[in-house]
Amino acid sequence: GLPHARLCTQCQAVGSAAQHPPAHSLPHHPHHPHPPGGLSAAGTLKMMPSDHRSKSKKTVDKNSNEYRVRRERNNIAVRKSRDKAKQRNVETQQKVLELTTDNERLRKRVEQLTRELETLRGIFRQLPESSLVKAMGSCA
């Protein structure tokens, strides 16, 4: 079926995608609340640029006050964005060091507990069986 027919509840009520007009013949049905612009190939709504700015280059007076103010604001925004990225990078590196240290500490703890377990198992194996039966009897 058509992606548009899947999204439109009124078109689903009609019952089949075959009764739904092709998306290219009617990009905007009167009963559809969707904005003009139609659907993308993925079946999602696409917003068309609603303002007057288009892809064509406007002639910009680089000496105008407005241009200089816009450039300065943009430069500040770029600087701020780069500083934030650097700060995130520093924080990430600190976290990596912290987690690496924790991992090493935990590995050593696992090794220590493994050695303790082996020692206790060795001691346990050396106990005579009769003392084990007595110990088990007193637990119940």
UniProtKB/TrEMBL annotation:
Pfam families associated with the record: bZIP_2 (PF07716)
Single Gene Ontology MF annotation: RNA polymerase II cis-regulatory region sequence-specific DNA binding
Keyword Repressor: no
One GO CC annotation: nucleus
Spans annotated as Disordered: 18-69
Keywords: Activator, Coiled coil, DNA-binding, Nucleus, Transcription, Transcription regulation
Principal location: nucleus
SMART domains: BRLZ
UniProt feature coiled coil, ranges: 82-123
UniProt cross-references to SUPFAM superfamilies, sorted A to Z: Leucine zipper domain
Composition bias type Basic and acidic residues, residue spans: 49-69
Domain of life: Eukaryota
Similarity field: Belongs to the bZIP family. C/EBP subfamily.
Name of this protein: BZIP domain-containing protein
Native organism: Zonotrichia albicollis
